[in-house]
Structures are given as C-alpha cells and as structure tokens.
C-alpha cells in the first residue's frame, strides 16, 4: 500500500507565516509538520511501501527538507504545477498506480495528537474516511453518516447537521478514485477530492473511523499553530535537560531543553515548555506554560513569554513581553517590544484573514510576526495584529492594524502612523548617500 501527503497548498490564510515557508514546514515543537506526518506513516511499518509527497508552493524548500530526512529512500515527489485543488493533486499522485491498490491520503496541514488513529484507517478493509468531533463544525466539511457509513460530505454547511467533520485522512482504492474522477469545479474554482469521495459513497460503502475529540487539528488559521503546539506540549513528560543551566534557575512542570542550549541564572521556566537546540535564555527571563522556542533563538534579560511559538533564530534580547503569539524566523525585537494579547473589553480577539475579519474565539491572542521583521524600542502591538515579513517597525510605534510585508512603519506623533514601502526608503537612503558623496 502507498501513502500520499498533499503538501502543495499555498496556505494563504496562514500569512505572514507562509510568506517565507510552505505550510508543511511549519514547526510543531520545532519539528516541521511534514516530518511528523512522515514519522506517523513510518510507524505503520510494512503496511506502507512508498510515500508520495505532492509539492507545489515553495517546492524547493520542501524537496530540500526531504533530501535531509531518513524517509527519503521511501519518498517520491510529484509536482502540482497549478493549484487546481486537492482532487487534481491526488490524481497526479496516483498516476501509474495499480487500480487494485489502496492508498492512504493525508492533507498536509493535519496534526494528530496520537497517530494510533491513522493505523485504524490504514488497516481498514474498505474505503475509509477519518472523522473527528469539533465544537464548531461551520468551518469544515461535515460528515453525514448512517452509523459508521458515510452518506455525504457537506462543505461548511449553513445549518448544523453534525459535529463530526472531515479530518483530511482517507484510505481509498485507486480504481474507485479513477472511476469517479470526473467532477466539476467547486464554488471556489477548484477540483475538490471530497467531491470524488462523495461520488464513491453513492456507489459503494465508505467507512467512517472516528478520532478522539481534541486529538486533531488542521493548521488553517494562524492561531491553530499555537493550538497544535499546545497539543504537542501536553504530551511532554518529565524534565529533560540536554543543554547547560547556570544556577540558580527555577524549573517546574514538564520541560525539554535541547542540546547546546544555555539557560542563565535567575530564569523561571514553568512547563510545559519546549526549548530547541542552541537556544540562549536569560538571565532573569520567564518562560510560562505552553511556550516553544526553536533553534538558535535568544530570549534575553527580563523577557517574558507565554503560550507562544518562537521560530528559529529569533532575538528578543531584553525587556519584552510575547503573549499568545507567533514570532517567525529571524525576527529581531527591540527592547520593550510588547505584544498585547487581551482586549480591554475582554471580548474574543478577531484577526483579518484574506480581507475578512475572523473571530478567533480566543479571549487571549497576541500577534503574528512574519520572518525577518525588526522592531525598534518600545513598540506596542495590539491583539490580533499581523506584521508581514521583512517589515521594519520604528521605535515607539503603536501597531493597531496589519502591516503588509516589506513595509516601514514610522511614528511621527503618538497618534499618527506613516507607512511607506521599504523599497522607497532604500531608494531615499541611496539618494542621500549619492548626493553627499564628493
């Protein structure tokens, strides 16, 4: 049996995270989501003899990652050059497969609390779909089922039919996929694999296997990255220290400190916390529960972090607060940078996604700071704000609305923000240098 991972999507709703990395390489405990999925499939042993990864957006980064993994000997890459939908991706993946063969299919944005449920899908004797119970099914494809048999997948229904939604994991016979491949474009202009599944369900049995509630998440929106890492952190057990600690340091709860990391004196670490390789913490830093800090980052003097995901090579050297936020790779936070995470009225925080305001249903949510952003001293970022990659936020700015990528945000007064493109600022600086040259 073969497995397919659909890793070609653009991840538009995850920007600015996906401005510089494809969705499958988003870190969960500092390990790319794709690496987790490959490990799950590897755990199926002899059930899986080959894995096909369908790539598209930023394919070079995915291929580079795959080339460095032990799984590469069983992995074959196929490219989806045009983003025509999940059905098109699956059909490209199964080209040349035996029609009598079964395939396990995983969407590339799915994270599981326990891979055991994947075995139940793969070991099924019939076409199978994984369902999971959620509190709000309105943003998912809902499974209409009679007992354990699928009737139909209804995408984002206006009324509540069921709380069981499509988890994006299937086992299907190749011949059934090919026999039902003639489908129409969906309202969003794509060929949806769920439409193929619905056609199969009209003609033959499709079994529904159910995952435990709370044991699944798909990384569709920025705060889902925080929640997926929180889910993974809940599995930490004990205190594992592979780096060095300068006493006195207070550590409580479940904590992992990676190799070559160094924790300086008077730091508080309140687990669950995961610290990757080569990280420097402190002195007098505070890492509160559900914090992840990835390789090469520096969390310096009197910096406090709570329920946040810090990507690789981030520098927060002094006197900053990062709460319920995502800070992407290479960011440099100036002294006194604050990510506010709670509205004055204590209502749930909203975030603008692809031009629409979306309720996160989180009482506390900070900001999403894209890769290689720089902030000056005493910058304050309001709840639910996104800052695009490569942007500069000048000292003293109060960021109240999203900042596009490659933008300079200056504050001339306490209330006025002047936004210009970084390219314009670079041009101005070059002109000044040229005019002052002898």
TrEMBL record:
Coiled coil: none annotated. It catalyses: alpha-D-glucosamine 1-phosphate + acetyl-CoA = N-acetyl-alpha-D-glucosamine 1-phosphate + CoA + H(+); N-acetyl-alpha-D-glucosamine 1-phosphate + UTP + H(+) = UDP-N-acetyl-alpha-D-glucosamine + diphosphate. The keyword Glycoprotein does not apply. Keywords: Acyltransferase, Multifunctional enzyme, Nucleotidyltransferase, Transferase. InterPro entries: Bifunctiontional_GlmU_arc-type (IPR023915), GlmU-like (IPR050065), GMPPB_C (IPR056729), NTP_transferase_dom (IPR005835), Nucleotide-diphossugar_trans (IPR029044), Trimer_LpxA-like_sf (IPR011004). It holds the Pfam family GMPPB_C. In the N-terminal section; belongs to the N-acetylglucosamine-1-phosphate uridyltransferase family. In the C-terminal section; belongs to the transferase hexapeptide repeat family. GO terms for biological process: UDP-N-acetylglucosamine biosynthetic process. This is Nucleotidyl transferase. One of its GO terms (molecular function) is glucosamine-1-phosphate N-acetyltransferase activity. Pathway: Nucleotide-sugar biosynthesis; UDP-N-acetyl-alpha-D-glucosamine biosynthesis; N-acetyl-alpha-D-glucosamine 1-phosphate from alpha-D-glucosamine 6-phosphate (route II): step 2/2; Nucleotide-sugar biosynthesis; UDP-N-acetyl-alpha-D-glucosamine biosynthesis; UDP-N-acetyl-alpha-D-glucosamine from N-acetyl-alpha-D-glucosamine 1-phosphate: step 1/1. Residues 2-232 form the Nucleotidyl transferase domain.
């Amino acid at each position: 049996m073969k497995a397919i991972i659909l890793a070609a999507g653009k991840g538009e709703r995850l920007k600015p995270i996906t401005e510089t990395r494809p969705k499958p390489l988003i870190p969960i405990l500092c390990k790319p989501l794709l690496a987790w999925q490959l490990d799950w499939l590897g755990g199926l042993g002899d059930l899986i003899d080959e894995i096909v990864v369908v790539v598209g957006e930023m394919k070079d980064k995915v291929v580079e990652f795959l080339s460095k993994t032990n799984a590469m000997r069983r992995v074959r890459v196929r490219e989806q050059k045009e983003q025509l939908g999940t059905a098109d991706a699956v059909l490209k993946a199964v080209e040349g497969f035996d029609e009598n063969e079964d395939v396990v299919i995983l969407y590339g944005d799915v994270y599981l609390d326990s891979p055991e449920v994947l075995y139940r899908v793969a070991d099924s004797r019939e076409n199978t779909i994984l369902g999971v119970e959620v509190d709000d099914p309105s943003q998912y494809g809902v499974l209409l089922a009679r007992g354990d048999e699928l009737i139909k997948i209804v995408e984002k229904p206006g009324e509540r039919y069921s709380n069981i939604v499509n988890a994006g994991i299937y086992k299907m016979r190749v011949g059934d996929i090919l026999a039902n491949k003639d489908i129409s474009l969906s309202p969003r202009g794509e060929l949806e694999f769920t439409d193929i599944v619905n056609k199969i369900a009209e003609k033959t049995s499709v079994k529904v296997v159910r995952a435990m509630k709370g044991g699944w998440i798909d990384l569709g929106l920025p705060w889902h990255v925080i929640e997926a890492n929180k889910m993974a952190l809940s599995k930490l057990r004990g205190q594992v220290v592979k780096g060095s600690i300068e006493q006195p340091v207070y550590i409580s709860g479940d904590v992992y400190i990676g190799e070559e990391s160094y924790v300086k004196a008077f730091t508080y670490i309140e687990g669950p916390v995961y610290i990757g390789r080569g990280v420097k913490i402190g002195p007098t830093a505070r890492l509160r529960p559900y914090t992840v800090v990835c390789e090469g980052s520096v969390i310096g003097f009197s910096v406090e972090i709570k329920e946040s995901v810090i990507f690789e090579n981030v520098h927060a050297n002094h006197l900053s607060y990062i709460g319920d936020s995502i800070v992407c790779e290479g960011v440099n936070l100036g002294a006194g940078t604050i990510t506010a995470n709670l509205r004055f009225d204590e209502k749930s925080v909203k975030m603008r996604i692809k031009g629409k305001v979306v309720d996160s249903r989180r009482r506390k949510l900070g900001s999403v700071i894209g890769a290689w952003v720089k902030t000056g001293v005493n910058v304050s970022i309001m709840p639910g704000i996104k800052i695009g990659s490569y942007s500069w936020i000048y000292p003293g700015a109060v960021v109240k609305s999203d900042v596009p990528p490659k933008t300079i945000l200056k504050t001339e007064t306490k209330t006025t923000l002047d936004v210009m493109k970084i390219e314009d600022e670079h041009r101005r600086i070059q002109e000044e240098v040229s005019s002052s040259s002898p």
